Amino acid sequence: MGDTDMLSTVAALLGEPARTRILTALLTGRAMTAKELAYFAGVTAATASSHLSRLLAGHLLVMEKQGRCHYYRLRSAEVARAIEGLMTVATIPSNGWPPHHHVEPALREARMCYDHMAGHLGVAVCDMLLRRHHVVLVDGGGEVTPSGERFLAGLGVDLPKARGAKRQYCRGCIDWTERRHHISGAVGAALAEAFLARRLVARIPDSRALAVTPLGGKTLAAMGVAQYRATAPRSASAG
């Protein structure tokens, strides 16, 4: 199959709204069962099973079996990045800025983009790291400076583990709601892991959204992200 045919196949998979909802639900970075994904997609279990089979065949998902349960997740960070990129394109307005699509406020504020932080929170943290020269972003990649290594280590970010990951170490990712960079790659994943482990942010149930905890608000202010205040965890859609 040529590149054009492969692109057409992927485009056909993404052209079905239920499959798109399944993929965006999995942008949490967590694995989910077919029953859970049927709920997010708004379809029956049988229909969800059919969609999941096609997404597996299209190499967009992988399935892991644990006991009697089958769990589905995105195949890779590259798949997640492609979905986020398409969301950026899909929300470009035909008559200029700003886009007029509806975005759940909690998702716009702070969310998981597969395994790294996005939304206003992700962009604000990225801005701070760039402003302090802790991170340098270039086309297609990025690097953590010596001062950044010390700073991130102080936050509990496991940079040695990130360097050993079989993926790009550090890169900027265009945020589809903010239209500016947040940090992705192995460094972005390690940063999100540290924020969650230290309870600076908390996952909102059944959603990609994150809530900044009181401790997180204080920590962000001390980091120079003073415009960020703590938000109480609440329910939100998984879009």
Helical segment count = 11
- Total tally of structural domains: 2
- General form: globular
> How many angstroms does the end-to-end distance come to?
32 Å
Note the beta-strand portion: 15-25%
Low-confidence stretches: 234-239
Helicity range: 40-55%
Radius of gyration: 18 Å
Given helix and strand content, the structural type is alpha+beta
* Element string (H = helix, E = strand): HHEHHEEHHEEHEEHHEEHEEH
Physical arrangement of strands within the biggest beta sheet: 1-3-2
Tell me the total number of β-strands. 11
Query: If you average the pLDDT, what whole number results?
Result: 85
Main β sheet profile: 3 strands, antiparallel
Short précis:
The chain is of the alpha+beta class and 239 residues long.
Helices and strands in order, then pairings?
Layout (H helix, E strand, L loop, with lengths): L2 H12 L2 H9 L6 E2 H8 L3 H13 L3 E6 L2 E6 L2 H14 L14 H5 L1 E3 L2 E3 H13 L3 E4 L2 E4 L1 H9 L4 H5 L7 E4 L6 E4 H13 L3 E3 L6 E3 L1 H10 L16
Antiparallel strand pairs: 1-3, 2-3, 4-5, 6-7, 8-9, 10-11
Helix pairs in contact: 2-3, 3-4
Characterize the structure shown.
With 239 residues, this protein is of the alpha+beta class. The chain has 2 domains: 73 residues, Arc Repressor Mutant, subunit A; 143 residues, no CATH class. The protein has 11 helices and 11 strands. The strands form 5 sheets. A 3-stranded antiparallel sheet has the order 1-3-2. The chain has a two-stranded antiparallel sheet with strand order 4-5. A hairpin with a 2-residue loop joins strand 6 and strand 7. The protein is globular. The C terminus is likely disordered.
